[in-house]
Specification:
Order of helices and strands: HHEEHH
Oligomer: single chain
Structural class: mainly alpha
Helix content: 40-55%
Shape: globular
Radius of gyration: 11 Å
Strand content: 5-15%
Largest sheet: 2 strands, antiparallel
Distance between the termini: 12 Å
Length: 66
C-alpha cells in the first residue's frame, strides 16, 4: 500500500503508474530523474489540493492492475 511516506522512486520502480501521475497533473520527475523524496513531499511541492484522494486513487489503480 502506498502512503505519503513511500519514496516516489520506489513507486515508479514497482508499478506502472506514470500515466496516473501525469493525468493528475503531477510529474514524478526532477531534473536528475525520479523525484528523490516521499510521495507526500512531492504532492506538497506540486500543491495537490487533495493529496489523500490522489494516494487513494493511486492505490486503487495498483490493486486493480494486480
Amino acid at each position: 500500500m502506498i502512503t505519503k511516506d513511500t519514496p516516489v522512486e520506489e513507486i515508479l520502480q514497482k508499478y506502472d503508474v506514470l500515466t496516473y501521475f501525469l493525468e493528475n497533473g503531477v510529474s514524478p520527475f526532477s531534473c536528475a530523474g525520479a523525484f528523490p523524496q516521499s510521495l507526500g513531499k512531492l504532492l506538497e511541492i506540486k500543491k495537490v489540493k487533495d493529496p489523500d484522494a490522489f494516494i487513494d486513487g493511486l492505490n486503487k489503480l495498483i490493486q486493480e492492475s494486480t
